[in-house]
Amino acid sequence: MGFPKFWARSATTEVPANDVNPSSSDVSVIHDGNLTFTIEKAENGSKPSYQEAAGAPVESKSPLGYHVGWITVIFLNVNQMIGTGIFSTPGTILNSTGSVGLALIYWTIGFLLAIAGFSVYLELSSYFPNRSGSEVVYLEQEYPRPKHFFPVTFAVYSVLLSFSSSNSIVLARYVYQIAGTTPTDWQLKGVAIAGYTVATIFVIAHNKYSLWLSNLLGFVKIVTLIFISITGLVILGGNVPHISDPGVNFRNAFEGTTTNGNDLAVALVNIVFSYTGFANAFNVVNEIKNPIPTLKRNGAVSILTVGLLYMLCNIAYFSAVPKAEFAKSKETAAGVFFVTVFGQGRAEKALNVLVLLSAFANLLAVVIGHSRVIREIGRQGVLPFTKFWVSTKPFGTPAAPYFLLWVVTFVMIVAPPAGDAFQFVVSLATYPNGIFHLLLTSGVYIIRYRRKRLGLPRPEFRAWDVVLIFYILLQVYIIATPWIPPKGGPYAGSVSFWYATYCVVGIGIILLCGLYYIVWMYLLPRWGGYKVRPEILNVDEHGAVTHRLVKVPLSEIEKWDEEHDEAGHLRRRYRGNETSSSQGDGKDQEPKVV
Predict the structure, then answer these.
(1) If you write DSSP's letter for every residue of 332-345 in order, what string do you get?
(2) Residues 224, 351: contact at Cβ < 8 Å?
(3) 336-347: per-residue pLDDT in tens?
(4) Which residues pair with 14 in a beta bridge?
(5) pTM of the predicted model, to two decimals?
(6) Each residue of 69-96: b (16+ CB within 10 Å) or e?
């Protein structure tokens, strides 16, 4: 099947447009060897985009509306970054790095990683400012050949790993910590499922109001972190009598620093988890008016705010809790801090309630962002029942993606054992993600090359090369170092089973994606005597538009290609006979949906 020559210098031709009917081949077309680029524009105030025709069509009017303003951009990012990470992983990171000094350095690296990643996403969104779904769109456009390979691969990965089980489990732990009881495994899982179910009901019921709720809870969590930060400064000032030496953890700050590569890799994985969400707002680009300036200003504000608060909160933790005790805190690091400072009283419970609200806000932000990813995968046509995934009926929300996310999260909460599940699930979701992020960042250079060769205008934002290289190297580090064995042997890692299990499972998932693609795109068509072709489908009156991949019999493939362009639009000269040309004239076999 062969991968295309991305760097081949082929002749380019341009076909001008005359009208703007989305169901026909009316957009300008640029041919570049075996690639075909269409020029499309949306109503979100963005500049026209040049996208390869095999990708999902642009929805000129967002069927989800334009409810994402500058405040929502900030809190979509903030709510996913500040979820369970800063409240649960600082103890794990300290345990992995071995010293307070290196732990703080790792938190700084996380901030730089978020800035670099944000710059990469901002440049890519500048190329495609009228498509939601972020990675789905960017990988699709960076690697358009073989056709549908990356959409299929990322679709399988996203469907299997789009869960929020770890966040839900931490939320459940705080519920029981507030109640002052120790749950059984199944009690913990039951509360985790209930919390995620409530979040799902909110986002399905109403798009705008769920965003407003997310913003409100985001403000609460910012206030919570500010309170923790101020408490830390008060402790460092010697104003808490029962903490006699608040600076003890900062003297000889690098004492105990580990040199084990596996421990350092685990620490970085947890840092990545804590900063995951810096790009959440890019999942809703087509719902933002003037998206690139809005994202550039307010996305940067969200990262700077979170980065500062993360450092201050870690300093607060280290000022109050002895190093050895804090390193053992695992998922309830913030809870240990509250108990140490305020004791087992009302203040400690009140702050745990605030952490609980923060975890719930994280669930809202995650499901909102992931739903757009799943919907965009559906619009690529690579999932069965295309209309089901794309439609926004009955509430004007992507209900089908929300339901899928609930099912996958339910399974991932119920199936794994509660003890090691948290660390394994966090690691499992991060490892394949590192591979995709490496490909995504490297693909920026491919897009730059193509656009330069085609003479296309510069994007509204362009990341520095040093930033791209830094982000690429970090992804390489994330992919490579987890294979280094821990000090105590292969079963002495952060989980009770083999230390690199999550790496093997992650790679296995990606290989499964490739196998699925080969069977679906090559073997089945060969055995069935058909070829797969895209067609444009207008789903409803609210502006939902999608690709639908259909099986065209080999006997009709020449006619189909004559009547449809590369994107699946009906060519203009056939629009007068649209019914017979797109659905068959009663004599030909009607193409079947893939």
Answers:
(1) GHHHHHHHHHH-SS
(2) yes
(3) 787 888 777 777
(4) 30
(5) 0.86
(6) ebebbbbbbbbbbbbbbbbbbbbbbbbb
